[in-house]
Amino acid sequence: MSLSQKLADLGIDLPPVATPAGAYVPAKVHGDLVYTAGQLPLVAGALPATGKVSDGHGKVVPASDAREYARLCALNAIAAAANAVGDVDRLTGVLKVTGFVASVPDFTAQPSVINGASELLGELFGDAGAHARSAVGVPVLPLDSPVEVEVVFTLD
């Protein structure tokens, strides 16, 4: 089944590609790979939440919400990669995911947050969605985003 059909079956519309916030492109093709820039969980050009991820004290983003935002980052990465190659169905798999979680110092569940992105990619790409991954805690991300995800896709 094609990626476009899987997206349709799940009721997922790819978002528009986010305008870069600096001097870079959203995705770059090299050989049979597409590298995305770090993608924020932008929805209609805005972040759904800002702040640090935590298990729940102070002004923070709950880890369960951040997991959903990581999923949005993955969708934005698919959109950026599809735009770079002209057709979402040219994307055949996922090679590597790097996820960043802006979190409070004692938060250690970054991998479970980035699972939001990894699980969506696995659902969409099946076995070809199995990927190497890093999930890194950082003190702050652009625009005070709670998460950022970059993906390396394989091409047909």
UniProtKB/TrEMBL annotation:
Q: Which Gene3D superfamilies match?
A: RutC-like
Q: Which InterPro entries match?
A: Endoribo_LPSP/chorism_mut-like, RutC-like_sf
| Superkingdom of this protein's organism | Bacteria
Q: What organism does the UniProt record list as the source?
A: Microbacterium mangrovi
What positions does the domain Endoribonuclease L-PSP/chorismate mutase-like occupy?
Answer: 6-149
Instruction: Specify the taxonomic lineage.
Output: Bacteria, Bacillati, Actinomycetota, Actinomycetes, Micrococcales
> What is the designated name of this protein?
LysR family transcriptional regulator
Pfam families to which the protein is assigned, alphabetical: YjgF_endoribonc (PF14588)
